[in-house]
Amino acid sequence: MGHLSTLAGVLALTGLFDAVTAQSCSGVTGRYQPKMGSGYRVSVLASGLRQPRHIVVDSAGNLLVAEGGSTGVRRLVLQDNGNIVCASSNTQILTGSTNHGIALSADGKTLFTSNLASVTAYSYDASTGQVGTGRQIVTGMSNTGTHPTRAIATSKWSPDTILVARGSNGNIDTSTTDRSSGRSMIKAFSISQGMTTAHQYNTGGEVLAWGLRNIVGLTEDPNTGGVWSVENQMDDLRLNGRDIHTNNPAERLSYHGALNDTNNRYKGLNYGYPSCVPAWDPENVGISGLLVGSLFKPDGVPNANDCANRMTGRLHFHAHTAPLDIKFNANSTAAYIAFHGSWNRNPADGYRVMRVDFRNGQPVADVTSKTAQIPVMENSNVGACPNSCFRPVGLAFDQKGRLFVSSDTSGEIYVIYGA
After folding, report:
1. What is the CATH classification number for the domain harbouring 84?
2. What start and end residues bound the annotated signal peptide (predicted)?
């Protein structure tokens, strides 16, 4: 009995050790030591990358990484190495093609990348990594102000569709009250039509949702076809001259229905920006009856008399935590969200990967919940952020259920096991 108890204690300690200690592949040195949630462990797959942003796993199990600064796309061929996964090769397969977004067609034979101005399609061979000549399929997306990322997502349920998100032209982009501005929205485009004649973002495609300040992550629930987005909300918020920006507004997880649903009641809805923002700390806002996620009108925005009639999110998150990607596990029981972290609040917040549990295609938690996020991977010292910590950006699952995470500022790729 005593020996069994001792062994159980050793195994428990070993499991705890694995959960908090990041292993690295040979020749790879991780810069930071993540703190892992219960049941998870982590390894460092790659380092020394240039601003790795969104990522995707191809049909042969290789990891494709969009690097920032118009660097291009990198292909990591993966192999198991004991109880972690490592890269047997790491090569650049595209140059100067992207600053953020990357996706693959449903059949895995077309690679899409995005940058400030356009979305480009390439033929792609997963077995060799060979990439064909690029063809722009969506153009006319340049902004003169901020928010250069263009999140993109393809659909298993509607294989000829690519979703493209375009953010606002600044913190408060007043012209986006008009849908024809072509900003602060998600649009759906036909891939096949774009291959013939490129879509112009402002005039082409269909509006899936608008009034969304800056969507940086998009995904499709693999089991229901439902489309979800994560949004970065407004900075430096004031109400009646009072600074309320530290804990407001909320970042937002929004549902947009299924692309193959001809009666999709969410299609084309407006989510309030720039006139209406969602509350995270209603008490700090000080409006009677306001709940988490309720929309209200702050200072400095266009007039809005109908915030109550605008669509709001399905879940909400801490202010300024900057969610940049969302991905579902294979059975859609959980969505994982990468929070890049705040610059607009003190103390810092974010800099973590969190889980939201789902059931029957929707989050388990209520829309007003403040505890829907379950810790998966966090920085051990958030006080060192943003300059001396990892900052999650892109997420991708492989067929073995391993979750890959990019960190742009540290130039690393992590692998989470147990997701």
Report:
1. 2.120.10.30
2. 1-22
Strand 251-258 vs strand 352-359: parallel, antiparallel, or unpaired? unpaired
For residue range 240-254, what is the model confidence (pLDDT) as tens digits?
999 999 999 999 999
For 248, phi and psi rounded to 5 degrees? -145, 150
Measured in whole angstroms, the distance separating CA 223 from the mean position of its chain's CA atoms is 19
110-114/119-125 β-pairing: antiparallel
Label residue 360 left, alpha or beta by phi (over 0 means left) and psi (-120 to 50 means alpha).
left
Structure tokens at 211: 């009034």
Give yes or no for a cis peptide into 363 (omega within 30° of 0): no
pLDDT tens digits along 56-114 = 999 999 999 999 988 999 999 999 999 999 999 999 999 988 899 999 999 999 999 99
86: left (phi over 0), alpha (psi -120 to 50) or beta: beta
Q: Is 196 exposed, middle or buried (0-12, 13-18, 19+ CB in 10 A)?
A: exposed
Peptide bond into 298 cis (omega under 30): no
Sign of CA dihedral 310, 188, 186, 392: positive
CA 33 – CA 165 distance, rounded (Å) = 33
Report yes or no: 90 and 46 within 8 Å, Cβ to Cβ: yes
Q: Is residue 21 part of a domain?
A: no
How is residue 211 annotated by DSSP? Answer: S
- How many Å apart are CA 228 and CA 252, to the nearest integer? 10
Type and span of the H or E element at 387: none
Here the tokens at position 27 are: 């020749």
Q: Which candidate, 265, 131, 110, places its Cα nearest to that of 195?
A: 110
Whether pTM exceeds 0.85:
yes
**How does strand 135-139 pair with strand 199-200?**
parallel
Provide the domain count of the chain: 1
**351 lies in a domain?**
yes
Number of H helices, E strands in the chain: 3, 34
Q: Could you tell me the residue range of the domain that residue 369 belongs to?
A: 34-417
Is residue 44, in this structure, part of any structural domain at all? yes
Q: Where are the beta strands (DSSP E) in 8-109?
A: 23-24, 34-36, 41-46, 52-57, 63-67, 72-81, 84-95, 102-104
In a domain, residue 19? The reply is: no
